[in-house]
Amino acid sequence: MARSMRMLIIVVATAGLASLAGGQALPFPAPAVAPEAISDTQDFPYLPPLPGARLTATKHISEPLELKRAAEDNEAVLAGQSYVKKTYERPGNITPVVFITSYRDALFASGWRLIGVTKLEEIAVQPETVNVAAHYSANGRNVYARLSQEPGGPYEINVADVGAEDWGSQLESKCRVTLNSVHFDLDRPTIRPESSPTLETAAALLKAQRPWKVEVRGHMDNIGAEGDALRQVLSEARAKAVATWLTTHGVPASRITAKGYGKTRPVADNDSDLGRAKNRRVELFRQGCAR
């Protein structure tokens, strides 16, 4: 490739998606009102690849998308029940700094809420996998994304389209729906604001004409200095917080109960942060369901 063409790619990848502090970022197309049909050979239309990158693989993963790992002052952030991962071969000029600044600024300019972004100063000290995680909740959509680049390797765009999940069929056939995109303050029953689109979907489903009654179930991991009894209390408080949110948003109180199960019903190994995050969950369970 001629030197002038290489310089053009670098300019497009960095100047067009310049830091908001030094210029205007070029926004991405907004997700459509209805979920898009995206084949395994297509890019996400609302998360285009950087110039020169090439899509090499698409994988459908049947587990929640980890957007942000647990920290001392925050629980891990998960979203969705499954996600799609698209892997891209990248040219050498897409450095970690270009990757982070390009996607961070473009997502922000396009109305996405940034959840977690690797700090630029951390890249210089210890090169590692870098991440940009974000949430789009406008236009009737509820989409989470994590974009990751490995040192010297490819990069990935992972998307959990929570709004496209068929919760009605899950309650019908499997009796339960796990609300992975409902997030709480650390060790508290306080629902975080970004949970609203997920809870709005749950409320709309329960207000539909199906005469279902549901139990909101709170579950916890097995970690915590406060002991088993308080983990049980916290699971109950979180279940009640979700039930209260639903009833105050139009779901008849006669159709909702809440119960905490503490750490007694894990769905994953408690020996990892991701496993504990999966266990720390809220579910809707259809009452009277025998399955």
Protein architecture, described:
The protein is α+β, with helices and mostly antiparallel strands and 291 residues long. The protein folds into 2 domains: 13-163, Protein Transport Mog1p, Chain A (3-Layer(aba) Sandwich), CATH 3.40.1000; 166-286, OmpA-like domain (60s Ribosomal Protein L30, Chain: A). The protein is 27% helix and 23% strand. The protein has 7 helices and 12 strands. The protein has helices spanning 3-14, 96-109, 120-125, 167-173, 196-207, 227-248, 273-279, and strands at 54-61, 65-68, 77-79, 83-89, 113-117, 130-136, 143-149, 155-161, 176-178, 214-218, 256-260, 282-286. The strands form 3 sheets. Strands 1-4-8-7-6-5 form a 6-stranded antiparallel sheet, covered by helices on one side. Helix 5 (196-207) packs across helix 6. The model is unreliable at 1-24 (pLDDT under 50).
**CATH C-level category of the largest domain:** Alpha Beta
- In which range does the helix fraction lie? 25-40%
Task: Please outline the major beta sheet.
Answer: 6 strands, antiparallel
- Number-wise, the strands total 12
Q: Give the assembly state of these chains.
A: single chain
Mean pLDDT: 88
Gyration radius, rounded: 21 Å
Low-confidence residue ranges: 1-24
| Total number of distinct structural domains | 2
Derived structural class:
alpha+beta
SSE order in H/E notation? HEEEEHEHEEEHEHEHEHE
Strand content: 15-25%
Treating each run of at least 4 consecutive H or I residues as one helix, how many helices? 7
Q: Report strand order across the widest sheet.
A: 1-4-8-7-6-5
Could you tell me the CATH topology label of the largest domain: Protein Transport Mog1p, Chain A
Name the CATH architecture of the largest domain: 3-Layer(aba) Sandwich
Question: How far apart, in Å, are the first and last alpha carbons?
Answer: 60 Å
Describe the global form: globular
